[in-house]
Design goal:
Elements (H helix, E strand, L loop, with lengths): L4 H11 L2 E8 L4 E8 L1 E2 L5 E6 L3 H8 L2 E7 L12 E10 L3 H10 L3 H5 L4 E14 L5 E5 H4 L7 H17 L1 H11 L8 E6 L2 E6 L2 E6 L7 H21 L1
Antiparallel strand pairs: 1-2, 1-5, 3-4, 4-7, 5-6, 6-7, 7-8, 9-10, 10-11
Length: 241
């Protein structure tokens, strides 16, 4: 597959459930890094759930410029040969319910914290990203290339929760095949957590993975077609041994 810096950046942002959030400490400008749970919206804008009691939130309220480093190197013996992307942007409170629902679906344990008065959802509006994806694959990616055009994908967003519930309740075997065969992940208890125009996210306790669609999906039917295509591929690969 041909390497594309923007596509690989989005893949990492969508696939990784955590990131290192860097903010300016207090008013003195010292960089401050912290580990945060992440999700992304359909365009690939990062979503955070953070508390006003946390240092990083205090920093954001003083200066909303942030960076998020998504680390895809965990499975590499030589970590520095693995892919990672740093997204630079501005964090603002998120009010739309779809962004909140995507975060909770990805991190169910966060539902409790979302009810606390000191917690709020934030969305990071990227300005650019810097990706290191391997030898000779180091690029800056501008915002207009980084984000997915979702102007024709409103119907998919509206149907996402129902699609996810249907797959988990009625086709858990297919979800398991996605994870075990297409992602190469072991274990049972996998569930679908989200469907976006470029693919779908899966999780089980302690693990996450992502499957990519062959074609972009803007509607529930297009998403269904891609999910069926992928389960057929997984069954073929499993049968071939």
């Amino acid at each position: 597959m041909t390497y594309d810096a923007a596509s690989e950046s989005r893949r990492l942002m969508r696939a990784e459930p955590t990131a290192t959030l860097s903010t300016g400490l207090g008013g003195d400008g010292w960089p401050y890094g912290s580990l945060v749970l992440t999700a992304v919206d359909h365009a690939a804008r990062p979503i955070l759930l953070i508390s006003t009691l946390a240092e990083h939130t205090k920093n954001i309220l003083a200066d909303n410029r942030v960076s998020l480093m998504f680390d895809g190197t965990l499975d590499y013996q030589e970590r520095l040969t693995g892919p990672r992307v740093t997204v630079l942007g501005r964090a603002e409170k998120a009010s739309d319910e779809h962004a909140k629902a995507r975060f909770i679906a990805r991190h169910p344990s966060a539902a409790m914290y979302a009810q606390f008065g000191d917690f709020a959802f934030y969305r990071v509006e990227p300005e650019r990203a810097h990706i290191v994806a391997g030898f000779g694959k180091i690029d800056w990616v501008a915002k207009d290339r980084l984000l997915t055009d979702v102007s024709g994908a409103a119907q998919l967003a509206e149907a996402e929760a129902d699609m996810v519930a249907h797959m988990n309740e009625d086709h858990s075997d297919a979800v398991g095949l996605y994870a075990n065969v297409l992602c190469g992940r072991s274990g049972v208890g996998w569930r679908l957590t989200g469907v976006d125009p470029e693919g779908a996210d899966l999780a089980r306790p302690g693990d996450h993975c992502r499957i990519a669609f062959d074609k972009p999906a803007g509607t529930a039917e297009e998403g269904r077609v891609e999910l069926v295509r992928l389960v057929k591929r997984a069954r073929q690969q499993a049968a071939a041994g």
